[in-house]
Write a structure and sequence with these properties.
Layout (H helix, E strand, L loop, with lengths): L2 E6 L2 H7 L4 H9 L4 E5 L2 H4 L4 H14 L4 E5 L7 H12 L5 E4 L1 H4 L6 H12 L4 E3 L9 H10 L5 E3 L8 H7 L5 E5 L4 H10 L5 E3 L10 H11 L4 H16 L3
Parallel strand pairs: 1-2, 2-3, 3-4, 4-5, 5-6, 6-7, 7-8
Bound molecules: zinc ion.
The site of zinc ion (ZN) has 5 residues, from strand 1.
Length: 248
């Protein structure tokens, strides 16, 4: 079982394929990837497209419910409307978690509206997935701070610190409610993260879907060629993602 924990329904895919995931899924099939966490792109790029893209992710998921694990987003700049939309994503649309890109969306992780959302996500047992690894709003340290303030909410570092901040991601992973998706660090960093972090909270992903390029090939090679235990690799690729999504 391989689950790609970081993909997007990209704007270029939407503009060409209009909600038809067949060609998108063919790329997963080509690499024997069974399922994918599906994040938006229009909803992260444009606040006025947010609700429409959340709806779209739900419709795309309905076309292949055994393949997609969808995540919605909201813009905290909208205040209480953002909190309402977050609740609608999780309780009406059936999206499984929330994804935020504070760098692209232009808000601080410490935004007071976000606090309400972290709390709600924790109460509904929905993971909060972050782009991480870029200043000034998306550092692993900042997300670790949220994990300390909201201990019942699970936070995912969507890039495990990217290329530059993987050491900070490793520190953040000391918090029991922080998970990290190995989508960004180089091979040696992946090996060190696998040696030193809790093996039950590591995930793998590719960022496939932002454009048409095959991001899966490269990142699957990285995890497959890294010097890590086969049992651990299996856990990261297939077991941990399902554990993250289990609702108690
Ligand atoms: Zn991404």
């Amino acid at each position: 079982m391989i689950i790609d924990c970081h993909t997007h329904w990209g704007m270029v895919w939407e503009d060409r394929d209009h909600e038809d995931p067949a060609r998108w899924l063919a790329m997963l099939d080509h690499h024997h990837v069974n399922r994918a966490f599906l994040l938006g792109h229009y909803n992260l790029h444009r606040s006025d497209q947010c609700e429409a893209d959340n709806d779209r992710l739900a419709r795309i998921t309905a076309k292949a419910p055994d393949r997609f694990i969808p995540f919605g987003t909201v813009w905290p700049q909208k205040g209480e409307d953002a909190v309402k939309e977050a609740r609608r994503c999780l309780q009406v649309l059936g999206l499984k978690g929330l994804k935020f890109h504070p760098w692209l969306q232009g808000f601080s992780t410490a935004d007071p509206t976000m606090s309400e959302i972290y709390d709600m996500a924790g109460a509904l047992n929905a993971p909060v997935f972050f782009h991480d690894g870029t200043p000034c709003y998306s550092l692993p340290e900042q997300i670790a701070g949220l994990a300390r303030r909201f201990p019942r909410t699970r936070f995912v570092l969507g890039h495990a610190g990217l290329l530059w901040s993987w050491r900070s991601a490793l520190e953040a992973l000391r918090r029991p409610n922080v998970w990290a998706c190995l989508c960004g660090p180089h091979m040696r960093a992946i090996e060190v993260l696998c040696q030193r972090a809790d093996p039950d909270r590591l995930l793998w992903g590719t960022d496939f879907g932002f454009g048409f390029a095959d991001a899966i090939d490269y990142r699957l090679n990285l995890i497959n060629r890294a010097k890590i235990d086969d049992a651990l690799r299996e856990k990261i690729l297939g077991v941990n993602p399902l554990r993250l999504m289990e609702r108690s």
